[in-house]
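Why should sequence recovery work at all? Because a backbone constrains its sequence more than one might expect. Tight turns favour small or flexible residues, buried strands favour hydrophobic ones, and helices have their own preferences. The token representation captures these environments compactly. In the example below, the structure is given first.
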């Protein structure tokens, strides 16, 4: 019998191996510093020009990614890197986790094979926390009166710990990898706050509304959703997911059937691929949970995610030759194969199946 989809999604050596993806990402940043600013940032005794933990910090990665995008204009790239390195030298702490540790507010969601920091006090008056909040305001917020980063109560921290346990119990191999792509889980509140979100501009951080943190089940779903996005963001930095001349502003668009009445009824190929990637994982997630839980909503959620994944994979495939790069076409092929490769008929609604 073939392995469950939830297991297959954790196994690809290029597209799902967190250590491979993150090591390649780190080497990209270190090589960038070596090539562009060797005089400003000499190598340390280990031959590295930036520590791994520093390079993968969201606020630092935001600047490193901007420098990567400027690589064809070396003087501009050099200015970007010089500014970042100067700021880092002036700081006592360069990570949110270190600042929270010093302030006595650090909360770590530990799993058997990984962890993620829970930003329990985003209003901590320190430089990196302030920079992180500014990135949220610029790239995700709907406005100061609409939403804000929210502190967490002990009860909410407990729900988050239970959500992590649910993730590792349901999909231990998959979630062990996903936890490596997510450095921080951050709560959002406000009248116009989204359910959950992430962005390439704040890599390594997942944002979830407080209303989605009331139960471990809802929070675990949101974490899987956003952590899968974070993995794709990391993959895009080091693989040819999209064609060299791909531009989201002029790319072909697709029309998801469930968004016909939305103000944004058509999505560019990159958004459609990212959504397909998530729905493939959610279909497998709900399918796995439905095997051991009597909740009939899990089966319905699995069917919905399954349909959306199939629809988007087919639509993206129509533009694959012109919009995707070599790695992107292989990535799409792998996702499609895993999604179509069901291991057994689904159980009847609400009837658990022994694992």
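From this structural description, the recovered sequence reads:
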């Amino acid at each position: 019998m073939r392995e469950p989809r939830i297991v297959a999604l954790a196994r690809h050596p290029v597209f799902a191996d967190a250590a491979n993806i993150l090591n390649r990402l780190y080497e990209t940043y270190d090589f960038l510093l070596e090539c562009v600013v060797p005089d400003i940032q000499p190598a340390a005794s280990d031959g590295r020009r930036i520590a791994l933990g520093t390079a993968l910090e969201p606020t630092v990665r935001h600047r490193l990614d901007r420098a990567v995008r400027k690589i064809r204009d070396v003087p501009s790239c050099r200015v970007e890197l010089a500014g970042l390195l100067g700021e880092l030298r002036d700081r006592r702490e360069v990570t949110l986790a270190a600042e929270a540790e010093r302030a006595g507010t650090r909360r770590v969601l530990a799993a058997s094979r990984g962890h993620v920091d829970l930003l329990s006090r985003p209003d901590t008056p320190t430089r990196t926390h302030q920079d992180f909040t500014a990135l949220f305001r610029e790239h995700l917020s709907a406005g100061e009166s609409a939403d804000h980063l929210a502190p967490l109560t002990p009860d909410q921290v407990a729900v988050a710990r239970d959500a992590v346990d649910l993730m590792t119990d349901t999909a231990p191999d998959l979630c062990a990898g996903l936890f490596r792509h997510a450095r921080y889980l951050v709560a959002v509140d406000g009248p116009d706050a989204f359910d959950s979100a992430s962005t390439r501009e704040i890599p390594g951080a997942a944002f979830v509304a407080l209303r989605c943190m009331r139960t471990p089940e809802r929070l675990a779903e949101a974490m899987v959703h956003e952590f899968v996005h974070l993995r794709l963001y990391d993959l895009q930095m080091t693989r040819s997911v999209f064609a060299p001349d791909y531009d989201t502003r002029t790319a072909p668009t697709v029309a998801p059937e469930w968004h016909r009445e939305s103000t944004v009824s058509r999505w560019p190929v990159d958004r459609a691929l990212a959504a397909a990637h998530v729905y493939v994982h959610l279909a497998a997630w709900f399918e796995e949970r439905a095997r051991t839980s009597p909740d009939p909503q899990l089966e319905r959620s699995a069917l919905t995610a399954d349909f959306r994944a199939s629809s988007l994979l087919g639509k993206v495939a129509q533009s694959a030759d012109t919009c995707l790069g070599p790695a992107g076409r292989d990535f799409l092929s792998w996702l499609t194969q895993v999604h179509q490769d069901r291991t057994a008929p689904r159980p009847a609604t609400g009837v658990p199946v022994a694992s």
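A few observations help interpret the result. Confidence is low (pLDDT under 50) at residues 343-355.
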